[in-house]
Amino acid sequence: MERRSLLRAAVLGGSAAVFGGTLWRGAAHAAPAQPGTGPYGPLGSPDANGIRLPAGFTSRVIARSGQTVPGTSYTWHNAPDGGACYADGTGWIYVSNSEINPGGGVSAVRFSSTGAITSAYRILSNTRTNCAGGKTPWNTWLSCEEVSLGYVYETDPWGTRAAVRRDAMGRFKHEAAAADPVRRVVYLTEDETNGRFYRFVPTTWGDLSSGTLQVMVAGSATSGSFTWANVPDPDGSPTATRGQVSGSKSFNGGEGCHYADDKVWFTTKGDNRVWQLDLTSNTYGLAYDDSLVTSGTAPLTGVDNITGSSSGDLFVAEDGGTMDICVITPDDVVAPFLRIDGQSGSEITGPAFSPDGRRLYFSSQRGTTGSSSGGITYEVTGPFRA
């Protein structure tokens, strides 16, 4: 373990532990990451799709807003946002939110074992500004409304079961969700300048129809210990959920959320931070903060959606910045993984890996036009490390 990780653990009052059989996973992202050489090397020249990739990686366009998905008769939605992948026999499915209002909803694309598109279809309609969300262990997609008093909708990636609104998960400006199968809770971010970080504790794991909404309680520092407190009125009216619990910690613009190995990471766009909660020691700290970069230019700004790979790497998409997806490694190095050229009026959304970890899906929400009708959804294939 690196010395700075040990020092960071001491500051947080936590201890490094062995999880998943490896020591480094226990200490992963224990200090604010610094720029360095990423695991995939430098970015190359823009390819035919305008994407700069490391050597060995290729891209293709999966879908474009307002156009039929190749090989299908389905018209892809505007403003593609949060997404996730699901195993489907020998193939897989990628789901994608639509961040428009009214309309919103979610679409899905199905792939064969070779990566060929076999179908595309709608799984949620007539909702508002569906921004991010999260995958559940029982293979549903939680689609979140990023509006005041917004809802969470539980959807079926296969499109065979009707979507269900999950009122018990609270009404606020929802952004992302991440399921924790160990503690049997779902973490939730709130996209407000004084947003909160929540968790939903279902009455029965696997059934989100009832349960308790809780909010993180902690001091104003960027590291320390935390607890959870019940939100008295999850309906958020007349008092917003973020204002109901004294001592609940404020976060500046909650965005993406990812759970792995007894930790949860979430991003805040207002201060360009990636936060990490160690759920075994109930401590929190910064995995990245662009203002704490000690040399050179911060490679990651406009932090937004986040996902992780089986190697323990975090992949963070930019809303603005230089239109990068950056990687944050378990040894606290942050570096660009890819860059989209010529789309400065857009943002990168919905990063998600195929079940085998060999393909990364994401969208440029407004594409080359800068309009929600210009969204482009991509696939990148290459030697991602396991």
UniProtKB/TrEMBL annotation:
Organism ancestry: Bacteria, Bacillati, Actinomycetota, Actinomycetes, Kitasatosporales
Classification via PROSITE patterns: TAT (PS51318)
Keyword Signal tagged: yes
InterPro entries: 6-blade_b-propeller_TolB-like (IPR011042), PhoX (IPR008557), TAT_signal (IPR006311), WD40 (IPR011659)
SUPFAM superfamilies membership: YWTD domain
Parts forming coiled coils: none
Pfam families: PD40 (PF07676), PhoX (PF05787)
Signal peptide positions on this chain: 1-30
Name of the protein in its database record: Translocation protein TolB
Keyword Nucleus found: no
Keywords, comma-separated and alphabetical: Signal
Gene3D superfamilies for this protein: TolB, C-terminal domain (2.120.10.30)
